[in-house]
Recover the amino acids of this structure.
C-alpha cells in the first residue's frame, strides 16, 4: 500500500495512458468502454488520494525514474494542481458511463475503441499537463491531449466536424508553438526547465527583454488554448460539431487546464501577485475578459444551434474566470478557481443533456425543440436547473463563484464591475430563457410528439452533475474553501 | 443519529405529495410531521449541524427548549392540518402546506440570521400558494399584496443582517436589541410578520381570502414564527410592551364590527399575538414562559376555530356572519368543536387558553405594569365578546336563514376533534405543557382566586353582551368593508401608482416612436455584429484568427517592453 | 357616500326569547359567583384587584364601553362591501 502511495503521482498519468494503449490493442468496443470506465474511476480515486495527501502533508514531489531534478522530470503536486486534477478526473469519471449509449449507437466496434483510445489520450494529456513540474513536459502533454482531441472532434456526426477539427489543429498548433517558444526563451535565459527552479531563478532577471518576450509568447499561446477573446474562434465550431460526449468532456476540462497553466506561469513562476500587478497584464486581461463576457453572451443569444450557443457561453464564462484572475487578490482568485470548478460541472452537465436530446431527436436546432419539455421532462428540468446555475441564481453553485468574483471586484473598490457581472448574467438569462421558452411554452411539433424520455444511462450521469451543482450552491466547504487555500498559494507564489 | 435540519423532512417529503393519491397521500402527509417529530425528540440539545458558506458557519440545528417547543407545536399543527385537508384533490395546496410547515420548523432551528433569512423567504413563497389556490380574483390580488409585503419583510431582514454582519463580523442569531441600525431593521422585518400595529394589514387582508384549509395552515406558522424570533432576538425590549398592548386592544373594535367570520378570527389572531408580544417585552423568565405557552395553546385553538368556520364555508359557501345562522341543528358536532375553541380562546377555566394566558397576566402584574395589565384584562373581556360569543352565536345559534346542509366531512371532524381534545386536555392537565417550557416553572394556574376572577370577568362580560343585544345597541352584522391601514396602499397608493403609470406611458408615447426606432436600430446593429453571420460570430476564416494572434503578440510585446 | 347597507339582520330581538330560558340560570350563576367572591376570596394579583366586585365590574362596564366605542368608530370606517373592487 505504501508503494502505491509512493507512486500515486505517476499512476495518475500512467493509468489512462496504459488504458489507452489497451483500447488500441483490443479494439472491441464494449471492452474498451469497460477499460475506459475503470481507468477513469481509478484516476478519479487517485486524484482524491492525492488531494488528501496534499492537504495532509503539503507539496508532493515525485521524481520520474528516480532522476532527481533539475535533470530528471519532476512531478510536483500542490493544492492548486491537485484541485485541477480532481476537476478533470471527476468530470471524466462522470462522463464515461454516459458515453456507451451514445457512442455504440453510432460507431462500429473498432471505431468505438479508437474513440475511447483518443478519449483516454486526451485525459492522459490533460492530467499530465496539470501534474508535471517540468516546462517541456507540459508542452509534450499539451500536444498529446491536443492531437487526440482533434481526432475526437473529427469523429462528430456533422461533416463540418472535419473542418472544425482542422481549424482547431491549426490554432492549437500555433498556440503550442508559442508556448514552446516561450519555454525555450526561458530555458535559454535560466538554463533550467524545472518549474520549481525557474521560479527561484526568474525573479532576478524578470525585467530582461527575452524573459518579457517569453512571457508574451506564453500569454498568447495559453490565451489561444483557453479561448480567451478574441482568440476563441476555434472553440465554437469544435464544440458544436464534435460528438456531444467530446464537447462535454472538453468543455469541462480542456479550457480549465489551460487556465491552470496561465495561473501557473503568471503567478507561481514569475513571482506571485506582486509581479503580475506590475505588468500591464491585469488591465489587458480585464478588458478582454469584459469584452468576452458581453460579446460572446450576445452572440450566444442569436445562435440557433444550442450546442454553439453553449460553446459561446463557455467563451463568456471563461471571461468571468479571467476577470477574477485579473484582480490577482485572494478573494478574486478564489472566485476564479471556484468558477473553474463550478463551470466544469455545469457545462459538462449541459452538454450531456444536449447529447441526450441529440440522441433522441437528432438535432439541437432551437426551433426544432418546441414543446420538448413535455416529452423529455427530466432532461429539460435538468437543463433548467443547470441553466439557473449558469445564470448564477442563489442556491446554485454558479451563485457562489459569482459572489466571490463580485466580492473581489468590490474589494478593489470597483463596484461598476459588479454591475457588469450582474448584467452579463442577465444576458445568460436571456439565452437560457430562449431555450426554456421554446421547450415549455410552444406546442410540440410532430417529431417532438413521438419522442421518449432520454435513456437512464444518459440521464443519471447528468443528474449527478446537477446534484453537484445544487449541493455546491449550499455547501462551499469543499469548492470555495479549497479554492481559497489555493488562491493564497498563488498570490504568494508558494511552490 | 440523524443530523440534518428536520424541517427538510417536510420540504423534501412534499415533493412526493403531488404524485400520491387518496389514503396513501394522507398517510404520507401524516407520516412526515410524525417522523420529523420523532427525529427532534431523539436529538440532544446543542448546535448539532453546521454548514460553511460565505465564510460563515451557518448553524442549522440549534436545539434547545425554546426551539423544541415551537417545532413540536408546528409539527402537531401540520399533522392536524394534514387530516383536515384530506378531501383536497388539487396538487398545490398539500405540498405548499408541507413546504411552508417544513420551512417554519427549519427556521425555528436556525442559529444564524442568514439561514433564518432563507427559511423566512421559503415560508413567504410557499404560503402565497395557499391564497392563490382559492382561485378568485380577490384572492389573486390579495395574494400579490401579501407576497410583496412578505418579501419586503425578507428584504428588511437581509438588509439588517448585512449591516450587522458588517458591524459585528458575525451573523449569530442571539439577542439582537434595538441599539443599532441593523437591529432596528431586523426588528421591523420581524414586526411585519408579527403584524405589529400599522404593519398588520397584510394579515387581515390575505388570511380571509385563502382557501378553506389554507387559512387554517396560514394561521399556524408565519405569526408564531415571528413570535419565536422576537423571543430570541428582542426579549426584554421595553417598546414591545406598548406595541403588544396596542395589538391586544385595537383589533377588538374591528372584530366586533366585521362581518366575515374568518376576518374576525384574523383580527383576533392579532389580539392574541398582542398578549405574547407584551410578554416578550417584559422578558422575565416567567413572561417568556407565558409567551411560549400561549403560542402553543393559541396555535391549536385558533386552528380549531378556523377549522370550524372553514367547515361552514365548505358546506355553505359563505363565512359571512350576516348570511349564516341556525346551523346548530344541521352541524351539531362542528358547533360543539367551535364552542370548545371559543371557550379556549376566551380562557375559560379548564380550557387551554386559561393556563397560558394566566401566566402572562401574572407576569405583567408581577413586574408592576398595571396599565398594561388593565389593557390586557380589557382585551380578555373583548376576546370573549367577539370570538367567544360572536362566532358561535352568529354561525350556529342566531336563527337566521336556517340553511340546511350536511355535517362537515369526516376528516374535518376528526381534525377538529383532535384539536378540541388537546384544548381540553391541556386545560385540565397544564403540567404537560409546562414541562415543555423554556425555563423552569412552578406556576399554579388553578387557585380559587384565579378561577373565580376569570369566571366573574367572563360571565359579566357575557351578561353585557346579552343586555346590549336585547337593547339593540350591539352592532349589526353588515355586508360591508371596514377601513384599515391597507386603505393607504389600496386607495391613494394605488391611484398614485396608476397616475405614475399613466404619466410614464404618455411620456413614452411622446418619445415613443423615436425611442423604439432607436432600439430597433440598436438590435439590428447587434445582430449585424453578433448574429450568426456577424463579424463576431464568424468562425471559419482561419487566416483572420492567425492575424489576431499576431496582433495580440505584438501588442503584448509592446506593452511588456514599454 | 356610496354605501350599500346590505341586508341587516331582521328582528334580532325576536330571537332572544329562545335564549331567555337559559337567562335566569345564567344570572343565578352570576350572582352566586359574586357572593362567593365577596365572602370567601381575596385577590392579590395587583394592588387594586382586591376592591370588591372589581373583576365583575370591569368585565361588565369594560364590555359596554367598548361596544359603544365600536359603534361610534364604525361610522368612520364603514364602506360598501365592494369598496376596493374596481
Amino acid at each position: 500500500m505504501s508503494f502505491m502511495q509512493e507512486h500515486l503521482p505517476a499512476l495518475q498519468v500512467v493509468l489512462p495512458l496504459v488504458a489507452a494503449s489497451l483500447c488500441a490493442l483490443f479494439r472491441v468496443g464494449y471492452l474498451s468502454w469497460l477499460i475506459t470506465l475503470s481507468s477513469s474511476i481509478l484516476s478519479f480515486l487517485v486524484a482524491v488520494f492525492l488531494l488528501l495527501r496534499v492537504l495532509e502533508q503539503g507539496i508532493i514531489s515525485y521524481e520520474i525514474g528516480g532522476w532527481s531534478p533539475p535533470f530528471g522530470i519532476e512531478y510536483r503536486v500542490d493544492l492548486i494542481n491537485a484541485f485541477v486534477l480532481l476537476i478533470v478526473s471527476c468530470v471524466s469519471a462522470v462522463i464515461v458511463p454516459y458515453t456507451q449509449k451514445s457512442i455504440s449507437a453510432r460507431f462500429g466496434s473498432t471505431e468505438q475503441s479508437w474513440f475511447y483510445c483518443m478519449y483516454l489520450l486526451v485525459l492522459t494529456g490533460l492530467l499530465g499537463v496539470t501534474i508535471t513540474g517540468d516546462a517541456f513536459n507540459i508542452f509534450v502533454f499539451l500536444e498529446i491531449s491536443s492531437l487526440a482531441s482533434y481526432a475526437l472532434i473529427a469523429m462528430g456526426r456533422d461533416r463540418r466536424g472535419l473542418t472544425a477539427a482542422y481549424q482547431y489543429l491549426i490554432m492549437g498548433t500555433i498556440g503550442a508553438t508559442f508556448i514552446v517558444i516561450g519555454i525555450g526563451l526561458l530555458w535559454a535565459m535560466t538554463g533550467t526547465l524545472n518549474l520549481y527552479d525557474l521560479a527561484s531563478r526568474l525573479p532576478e532577471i524578470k525585467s530582461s527583454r527575452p524573459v518579457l518576450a517569453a512571457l508574451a509568447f506564453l500569454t498568447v499561446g495559453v490565451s489561444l488554448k483557453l479561448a480567451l477573446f478574441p482568440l476563441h474562434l476555434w472553440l465554437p465550431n469544435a464544440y458544436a460539431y464534435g460528438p456531444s460526449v467530446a464537447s462535454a468532456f472538453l468543455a469541462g476540462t480542456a479550457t480549465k487546464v489551460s487556465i491552470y497553466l496561465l495561473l501557473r506561469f503568471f503567478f507561481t513562476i514569475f513571482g506571485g501577485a506582486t509581479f503580475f500587478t506590475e505588468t500591464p497584464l491585469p488591465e489587458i486581461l480585464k478588458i478582454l475578459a469584459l469584452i468576452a463576457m458581453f460579446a460572446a453572451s450576445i452572440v450566444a443569444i442569436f445562435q440557433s444551434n444550442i450546442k454553439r450557443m453553449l460553446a459561446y457561453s463557455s467563451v463568456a464564462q471563461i471571461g468571468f474566470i479571467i476577470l477574477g484572475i485579473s484582480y490577482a487578490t485572494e478573494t478574486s482568485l478564489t472566485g476564479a478557481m471556484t468558477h473553474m470548478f463550478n463551470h466544469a460541472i455545469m457545462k459538462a452537465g449541459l452538454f450531456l443533456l444536449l447529447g441526450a436530446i441529440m440522441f433522441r431527436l437528432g438535432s439541437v436546432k432551437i426551433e426544432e425543440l418546441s414543446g420538448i419539455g413535455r416529452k423529455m421532462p427530466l432532461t429539460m428540468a435538468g437543463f433548467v436547473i443547470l441553466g439557473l446555475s449558469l445564470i448564477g441564481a442563489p442556491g446554485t453553485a454558479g451563485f457562489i463563484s459569482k459572489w466571490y468574483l463580485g466580492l473581489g471586484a468590490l474589494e478593489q473598490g470597483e463596484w461598476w464591475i459588479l454591475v457588469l457581472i450582474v448584467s452579463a448574467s442577465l444576458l445568460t438569462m436571456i439565452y437560457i430563457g430562449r431555450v426554456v421558452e421554446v421547450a415549455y411554452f410552444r406546442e410540440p411539433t410532430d417529431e417532438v410528439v413521438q419522442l421518449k424520455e432520454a435513456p437512464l444511462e444518459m440521464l443519471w450521469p447528468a443528474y449527478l452533475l446537477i446534484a453537484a451543482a445544487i449541493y455546491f450552491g449550499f455547501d462551499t466547504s469543499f469548492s470555495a474553501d479549497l479554492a481559497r487555500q489555493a488562491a493564497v498559494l498563488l498570490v504568494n507564489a508558494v511552490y | 443519529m440523524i443530523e440534518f435540519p428536520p424541517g427538510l423532512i417536510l420540504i423534501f417529503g412534499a415533493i412526493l405529495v403531488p404524485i400520491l393519491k387518496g389514503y396513501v397521500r394522507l398517510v404520507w402527509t401524516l407520516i412526515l410531521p410524525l417522523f420529523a417529530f420523532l427525529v427532534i425528540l431523539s436529538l440532544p440539545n446543542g448546535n448539532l449541524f453546521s454548514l460553511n458558506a460565505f465564510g460563515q458557519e451557518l448553524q442549522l440545528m440549534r436545539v434547545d427548549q425554546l426551539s423544541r417547543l415551537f417545532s413540536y407545536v408546528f409539527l402537531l399543527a401540520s399533522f392536524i392540518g394534514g387530516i383536515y385537508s384530506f378531501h383536497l384533490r388539487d396538487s398545490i395546496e398539500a405540498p405548499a402546506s408541507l413546504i411552508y410547515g417544513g420551512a417554519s420548523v427549519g427556521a425555528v432551528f436556525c442559529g444564524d440570521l442568514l439561514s433564518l433569512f432563507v427559511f423566512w423567504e421559503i415560508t413567504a413563497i410557499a404560503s402565497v400558494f395557499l391564497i392563490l389556490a382559492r382561485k378568485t380574483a380577490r384572492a389573486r390580488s390579495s395574494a400579490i399584496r401579501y407576497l410583496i409585503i412578505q418579501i419586503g419583510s425578507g428584504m428588511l431582514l437581509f438588509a439588517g443582517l448585512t449591516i450587522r454582519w458588517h458591524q459585528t463580523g458575525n451573523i449569530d442569531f442571539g439577542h439582537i436589541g434595538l441599539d443599532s441600525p441593523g437591529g432596528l431593521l431586523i426588528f421591523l422585518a420581524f414586526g411585519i410578520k408579527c403584524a405589529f400595529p400599522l404593519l398588520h394589514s397584510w394579515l387581515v387582508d390575505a388570511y380571509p381570502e385563502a382557501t378553506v384549509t389554507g387559512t387554517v395552515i396560514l394561521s399556524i406558522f408565519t405569526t408564531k414564527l415571528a413570535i419565536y424570533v422576537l423571543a430570541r432576538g428582542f426579549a426584554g425590549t421595553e417598546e414591545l410592551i406598548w406595541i403588544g398592548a396596542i395589538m391586544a386592544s385595537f383589533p377588538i373594535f374591528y372584530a366586533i364590527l366585521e362581518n366575515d367570520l374568518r376576518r374576525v378570527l384574523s383580527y383576533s389572531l392579532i389580539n392574541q399575538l398582542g398578549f405574547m408580544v407584551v410578554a416578550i417585552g417584559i422578558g422575565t423568565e416567567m413572561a417568556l414562559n407565558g409567551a411560549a405557552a400561549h403560542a402553543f395553546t393559541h396555535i391549536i385553538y385558533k386552528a380549531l376555530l378556523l377549522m370550524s368556520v372553514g367547515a361552514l364555508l365548505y358546506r355553505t359557501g359563505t363565512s359571512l356572519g350576516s348570511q349564516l345562522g341556525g346551523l346548530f341543528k344541521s352541524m351539531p358536532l362542528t358547533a360543539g368543536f367551535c364552542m370548545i375553541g371559543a371557550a379556549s380562546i376566551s380562557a375559560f377555566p379548564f380550557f387551554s387558553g386559561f393556563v397560558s394566558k394566566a401566566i402572562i397576566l401574572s407576569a405583567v402584574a408581577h413586574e408592576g405594569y398595571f396599565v398594561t395589565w388593565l389593557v390586557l384584562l380589557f382585551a380578555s373581556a373583548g376576546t370573549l365578546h367577539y370570538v367567544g360569543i360572536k362566532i358561535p352565536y352568529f354561525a350556529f345559534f342566531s336563527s337566521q336563514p336556517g340553511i340546511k346542509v350536511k355535517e362537515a366531512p369526516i376528516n374535518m371532524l376528526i381534525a377538529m376533534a383532535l384539536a378540541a381534545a388537546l384544548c381540553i386536555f391541556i386545560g385540565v392537565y397544564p403540567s404537560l405543557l409546562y414541562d415543555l417550557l423554556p425555563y423552569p416553572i412552578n406556576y399554579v394556574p388553578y387557585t380559587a382566586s384565579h378561577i373565580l376572577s376569570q369566571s366573574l370577568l367572563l360571565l359579566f362580560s357575557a351578561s353585557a353582551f346579552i343586555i346590549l343585544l336585547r337593547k339593540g345597541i350591539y352592532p349589526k352584522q353588515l355586508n360591508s368593508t371596514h377601513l384599515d391601514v391597507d386603505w393607504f396602499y389600496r386607495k391613494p397608493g394605488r391611484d398614485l401608482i396608476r397616475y405614475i403609470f399613466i404619466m410614464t406611458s404618455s411620456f413614452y408615447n411622446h418619445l415613443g416612436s423615436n425611442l423604439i426606432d432607436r432600439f430597433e436600430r440598436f438590435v439590428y446593429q447587434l445582430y449585424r455584429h453578433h448574429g450568426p453571420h456577424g463579424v463576431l460570430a464568424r468562425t471559419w476564416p482561419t487566416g483572420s484568427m492567425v492575424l489576431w494572434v499576431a496582433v495580440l503578440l505584438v501588442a503584448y510585446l509592446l506593452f511588456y517592453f514599454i | 357616500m356610496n354605501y350599500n347597507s346590505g341586508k341587516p339582520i331582521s328582528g334580532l330581538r325576536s330571537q332572544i326569547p329562545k335564549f331567555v330560558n337559559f337567562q335566569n340560570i345564567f344570572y343565578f350563576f352570576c350572582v352566586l359567583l359574586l357572593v362567593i367572591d365577596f365572602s370567601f376570596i381575596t385577590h392579590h394579583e395587583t394592588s387594586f384587584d382586591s376592591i370588591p366586585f372589581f373583576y365583575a365590574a370591569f368585565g361588565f362596564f369594560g364590555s359596554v364601553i367598548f361596544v359603544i366605542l365600536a359603534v361610534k368608530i364604525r361610522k368612520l370606517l364603514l364602506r360598501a362591501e365592494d369598496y376596493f373592487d374596481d
